């Protein structure tokens, strides 16, 4: 079969990262390490907030940043997130190297969670590629910047499987903003309706993709948040065949519409 005859050769398949291709890992371990190291750095600079107060402030500022990103597509900088913690503690951000040290802790904490590929992820990516699909990773970033994400993906054997990688931290906006999906299509040189985005979040991945004019496939392993008329699946082993069938049906529909307008 020639490359142009492959079933996904005319499609870009965009995939979410966290919760779709890799697990969150042990987030409690990551949070505990972040708080311990924050405390050590602050103590070295003569600041001694109580562990309970530090825990509450760090957790709340992270939740606020995540909520803002998820609901508005705003991309908070890592510096702003750490700076908000210092502001609440009444600590001057300008102390030499203080912000730099806290940023190093904040941005590397995710590695302590030891996230792993979700079962079937690598096999699914290889099958999509074999079917001719252009693979794009489209991920929101929050506390973890692009360079740490790339290091993690490389260590997990995922990075080289993608034709393109888009992070919200680089774009300056986050899913569900339509600009994210427009960037996927523009960089692929394809129309938006030839982009299929796959993800586990009904708001940022499904509604975001559909609102931008893309197609969507919902990874819903718990069968908790199905969207009517949106293909869904619960096991990554199902994804390649689902994409082939969905894209074939969509292509036939596009051809039918074009013929009816002639």
What does this 3D model show about the protein?
This protein is of the alpha/beta class. The chain has two domains: 3-24 and 115-261, HAD superfamily/HAD-like (Rossmann fold, 3-Layer(aba) Sandwich), CATH 3.40.50; 27-113, DNA polymerase, domain 1 (Orthogonal Bundle), CATH 1.10.150. The chain contains ten helices and six strands. It has helices at 27-44, 51-72, 78-89, 98-108, 121-130, 146-155, 168-171, 178-188, 202-212, 239-261; strands spanning 12-15, 134-139, 164-167, 195-199, 215-219, 232-233. A six-stranded parallel β-sheet has the order 3-2-1-4-5-6, with helices on both faces. Strand 2, helix 6 (146-155) and strand 3 (164-167) form a beta-alpha-beta unit. Helix 3 packs across helix 4 (98-108). The longest helix is centred in the C-terminal third of the chain and has 23 residues, at 239-261. The mean pLDDT is 93.
Q: Main traits of this protein?
A:
2 domains; 6 strands; alpha/beta; 262 residues; six-stranded parallel sheet; Rossmann fold; elongated; DNA polymerase, domain 1
Characterize the main sheet: 6 strands, parallel
CATH class wording of the largest domain: Alpha Beta
Which CATH architecture of the largest domain?
Answer: 3-Layer(aba) Sandwich
Overall spatial form: elongated
Task: Give me the strand/helix succession.
Answer: EHHHHHEHEHHEHEEH
Mean pLDDT: 93
Structural class: alpha/beta
- Annotation field: number of helices: 10
The stretches of 5 or more residues where confidence is low (pLDDT under 50) are none
């Amino acid at each position: 079969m020639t490359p142009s005859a492959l079933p996904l050769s005319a499609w870009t398949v965009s995939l979410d990262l966290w919760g779709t291709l890799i697990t969150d890992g042990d987030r409690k371990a990551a949070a505990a390490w972040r708080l311990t190291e924050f405390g050590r750095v602050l103590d070295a600079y003569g600041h001694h907030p109580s562990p309970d107060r530090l825990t509450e402030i760090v957790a709340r500022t992270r939740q606020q940043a995540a909520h803002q990103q998820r609901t508005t597509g705003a991309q908070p900088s890592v510096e702003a997130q750490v700076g908000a913690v210092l502001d609440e503690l009444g600590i001057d951000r300008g102390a030499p190297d203080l912000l730099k040290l806290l940023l190093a802790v904040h941005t590397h904490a995710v590695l302590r969670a030891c996230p792993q590929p979700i079962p079937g992820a690598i096999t699914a990516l290889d099958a999509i590629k074999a079917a001719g699909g252009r693979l794009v990773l489209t991920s929101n970033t929050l506390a973890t910047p692009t360079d740490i994400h790339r290091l993690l993906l490389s260590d997990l054997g995922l990075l080289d499987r993608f034709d393109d990688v888009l992070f919200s931290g680089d774009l300056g906006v986050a899913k569900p903003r339509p600009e994210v999906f427009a960037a996927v299509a523009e960089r692929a040189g394809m129309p938006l309706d030839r982009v299929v985005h796959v993800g586990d979040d009904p708001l940022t991945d499904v509604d975001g993709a559909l609102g931008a004019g893309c197609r969507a496939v919902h990874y819903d392993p718990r069968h908790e948040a199905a969207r009517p008329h949106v293909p869904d699946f619960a096991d990554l082993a199902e994804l390649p065949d689902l994409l082939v069938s969905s894209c074939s049906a969509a292509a036939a529909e596009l051809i039918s519409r074009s013929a009816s307008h002639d």
